[in-house]
Amino acid sequence: MTTESPEAQVSEAQIAVHWREEEYVHPTEAFIAQANAADPAIFERFSEANFPDCFTEYADLLSWDEKWHTVLDTSNAPFWKWFVGGRLNASYNCVDRHLATSANKAALIWVPEPESVDPVAITYRDLYHRVNEFAALLRDFCGLKAGDRVTLHMPMVPELPVAMLACARLGVIHSQVFGGFSGNACGTRIADSGSRILITIDGYYRSGDLIDHKVKADEALEEARKQGQEADKVLVFRRHPGQYASATPMTEGRDFFVDEIIGKYRGAIVAPESMPAEAPLFLMYTSGTTGRPKGAQHSTGGYLAYVAGTSKYYQDIHPDDTYWCMADIGWITGHSYIVYGPLALGTTTVIFEGTPTYPDAGRPWRIAERLGVNIFHTSPTSIRMLRKVGPDEPAKYNYHFKHMTTVGEPIEPEVWRWYHEYVGKGEAVIVDTWWQTETGGFLGSSLPALKPMKPGSCGPAVIGIYPAIYDENGGQVPDGKAGNICIRNPWPGIMETVWGQPERFIDVYYRKYNKNPDSKDWHDWPYFAGDGAVRAPDGYYRILGRVDDVINVAGHRLGTKELESAALTVPEIAEAAAVPVIDDIRGRAVEMYVSLKPGYVASDEMAGKVTHAIEVEIGKIARPKNVWIVPDMPKTRSGKIMRRVIAAVSNFTDVGDVTTLANPEVVEGIRHHVQSVKVSKGETPRKLTEAEYEELKKFGEA
Ligand code: WT7
To answer: What is the average pLDDT value for the chain, to the nearest integer?
Structure first.
């Protein structure tokens, strides 16, 4: 095959250039009748005139040891402090306070991946004991105290929320690293957070295999040491207590099996540490434009209030619901909307160890039927996958959702409609929630009983959030036009800072639209979200995607710099560039372009080394779809790699004007090679949307 195949060439004219506004879809009467927020007076209560006091309604959902004296302190803008003077404990709020009414109700239902094994219900009373015992171990065996950091590298097992809540009980700051991340990625985060303790597990089930996970702990500690951080203890849970599932040895005096040492703490009760509202509860690392990951630091009082409030009104969680969010606790979605929000409200939250399509695409619906799940929460990538491999599966199972969430990436209207009609059986209301690791909780979503849904649009801003869309110069962009979405006001869920990098916190999120660096007035400090967006005349927002060099793969952010530095750990590689390619299931996939140092020749083996390096440095989720070895990168005269040009090549769009490049002659060769291989592999793209086209055109300009 040749590159001249007509399907392969997508011209600008063929690209859908017009965004069609979708029709509203209304929630059912049955949903409205039981909703937590069904009185439109809530919009008035959270109007700008009532800011910031409106958020005391969220804080009042919690139990405080001491009440705050100041709702919002802006004296060190933009390092906002919420509920100052207040004291509370997150573990007390998520566990202890529910004992009086719900001790024997399931707090967690854990669904192990092997389907032959029954789900495990952990009551609030069980959870209370497990959290207390583990907190005693952390305090007495590890010597941890309030303010210390601990890194967790755990999969979807109940020991993960137990460990998080045990840290919270002591005021210890947890930093959970997504279990699928590599040992090196974990090590970097251990070093950045200054953790002395790593909590991990020997293995876990994924698509039928018991995966060796402890091996990553050894790599992580090695990497952390290289970066100057010594860890002195590794606590290793065992997936099957008493049976070690990893091939790597336990290091004497450093590695300890939790099931062997926890016995000493049986029945221990640890008083919850009364923490100031602004004490950090946890760190959640995320990717940005530069290589070093950012530890988003979330507070105890503001964060917990915000996730409790949004869980109540937007997730419509009642104490008697059975709530299942299929995200991983290793991401912010899991922290806010599997662990902290649902448990603060005293509901039952489901934790699933496995992948949704294993052993087949009926698995999620069997779980929902078996457990009586009535609130379901997942990502567009999972919905696309389940729709592709099992479109008729939901109808085979007798479950009924009243409410469903989509989160993490834009959802295509036709995918939305399948979710509504097939998964939700036309009964469930849908919220498309737009937010970020940094924001702690939702920013954009329809309020389910009070605002209609509009497929493909996240809806209006959530209550208490006042956005604006600005152009590059800070001018307000009219409705229907794209710009940078910002939030004009602070809110309780916003991160407090970037751990150890306060300047970066200001630079990345506030510098761009700040009106006066000395101002103590929040009106002068709009939060720059880093997303492009359009507002429709009805006030609904459509999120277009990142405006920085971040690639959103299946709802997970990967920084181009991180990918490129990983590729550059291969000694033969001279230069590397990462670009997004539109992917029908995962939204975006990563493609790498690399050039070799003199004297080396391109080979599949060389490309394999680049893929391997990315898996080692970041993890399998970052594995590139293709690695293209090119003789030379297209560059500007100042030597900057033109990612926009290679992104156009990978996506079969117009490379645009290349005459100003230092080496325009290389482009045609790269295009010919890449596109002919792609055509032969059947990797030609579908019609792109206007938003996708715009994103690619601007890629790498940040
Ligand atoms: C980025 C944040 C939100 C928690 C999980 C991801 C994109 C998120 C939506 C949505 C369109 C969305 C944005 C955002 N995003 N939700 N509903 N519609 N785009 O958190 O890894 O911090 O990523 O995900 O681009 O900036 P994250």
So the answer is: 95
